[in-house]
Amino acid sequence: MASITFSGATGNFSLLPTAAVSENSNNIEGGFNPLKKNLNNTRKKHNGRSLVSTNVASPPLPAIVHPPPKEESGDGYDRSHVAWTSVRQERWEGELLVQGEIPLWLKGTYLRNGPGLWHVGDYNFRHLFDGYAMLAKLHFHDGRLTAGHRQIESEAYTAAMKNQKICFREFSEVPKPANFLSYIGELANLFSGISLTDNANTGVVKLGDGRVVCLTETQKGSIVIDPTTLDTLGKFEYSDTLGGLIHSAHPIVTDTEFLTLLPDLIKPGYLAVRMEPGTNERKVIGRVDCSRGPAPGWVHSFPVTEHYIIVPEMPLRYCAGNLLKAEPTPLYKFEWHPDSKAFMHVMCKASGNVVTSVEVPLYITFHFINAYEETDEDGRVTAIIADCCEHNADTTILDKLKIQNLRLYTGKDVLPDAQVGRFKIPLDGSPYGKLEAALDPNEHGRGMDMCSINPAYLGKKYRYAYACGAQRPCNFPNTLTKIDLVEKKAKNWYDEGAVPSEPFFVARPGATEEDDGVVISMISEKNGDGYALLLDGSTFEEIARAKFPYGLPYGLHGCWVPSKES
């Protein structure tokens, strides 16, 4: 008989009650049973596979409940979808009932970071990117699955909980000054970086020395966490004197190095820096000066090849003036400067020299997928190929990510089109590069974002990418898609009404095929439920799922922390 324990906090601060459930009974003793409908028949067919029940247990943990904000009469919000609803409590952990079979070789923890709380008191945040960070985990061991989530205890989050108001500048939110003098003081704090958020709600990476760090666009928003307990351990303090306030939210991290870009808002350009495992010191590799425009382009992510760092310069550029404003502008911290053109720069990793800078068609991307070097028959590098999730140079994608717009979905097809944008950057001295779709965007529903690859192919020629696509009509990517860049085809997974998060690929140990592994995602369902999902990396068919005790809000990016024994 499997025992089941789930949390169900009922007060502002309480211990979680427990529940005991029989495999063959729906009787509950002392608590809520979110798996009731799955317990009558623990062995049945699901996608052609036998369902296997594992033990489910949750230790009692203190939980701070997040009461939902009061409903605003007539605001038209549809808060029924858990993807866009604040998480119900600060933390939870327990073992899940697995339907299907988890491969025994899968040993480790998948961590996913993202916004989890979009309100303070009765005040609702404006944008998806404003939410206070929530870290979720899926720990796999011997075919069993333990899950959990916890708020990251940033200074921004703890201050907001204590004062019941926003205390730091978030993506679109600004603290409300009490008077004019406090407003002047807040501006001074902005220039020094004091008032910028440390809400590390974007990504999470495992450094080569084993430390796990949550990140966002601000440098101060680098926070070390414990991947087992999800405890916040403290700030990741850089020990160098490079300064600056912002960096790329997506560094390139391997077992041997950490690479990132530091935008220079004073003298428009970018510093490329490297940090070795075991240190907190970033060292400059080289600098790229912007080709055009009043400020550097937003550099949320960037790609690398074996020998080069690719520095993108988008016409969506940082705007110091917008940072100073008390209310958000249509493009938030950015401005669209199509007249400034768009560029791709290529820097040598070894020397720091810029080997070429080419003008390319206008583009907007949050996420680069991968890049590699194209060579001639003599092995000389002739071009760089860089792939990204490209939004057809349409700036409205930022506005579509406002929480109100996500909650107000009426069934119309309002998600802007996107493609796998493939840049070809010649190294023959030509001043122009190319940008075209790597495959027909209709293969993935003209939706494309939140990508991952087999990390063994980072910076190398590759065939497969995993991302979120679209089943239209929709207002947000709602499928998981496997892209075959050789056959120019896509396989798509779809669950009606569900919002999947980033599909994360984990390779099978010893695999020789690029797609030999599993794809992990967390799914938010419209009815308020949610589950962890495993797909076969090759066939892209479901092999296992495990229902959460309650649905979790949409998350952004993750990383894999292998077990020490694996």
From TrEMBL:
GO terms for cellular component: chloroplast. InterPro entries: Carotenoid_Oase. PANTHER family: BETA-CAROTENE DIOXYGENASE, CAROTENOID ISOMEROOXYGENASE. GO terms for molecular function: carotenoid dioxygenase activity; metal ion binding. One of its GO terms (biological process) is carotene catabolic process. Residues 26-78 are annotated as: Disordered. Residues 68-78 have a biased composition (Basic and acidic residues). Keywords: Dioxygenase, Iron, Metal-binding, Oxidoreductase. Fe cation binds at residues 250, 300, 367, 557. This is Carotenoid cleavage dioxygenase 8-like protein B. Belongs to the carotenoid oxygenase family. The keyword Lyase does not apply. Binds 1 Fe(2+) ion per subunit. Its cofactor is Fe(2+). The keyword Oxidoreductase applies.
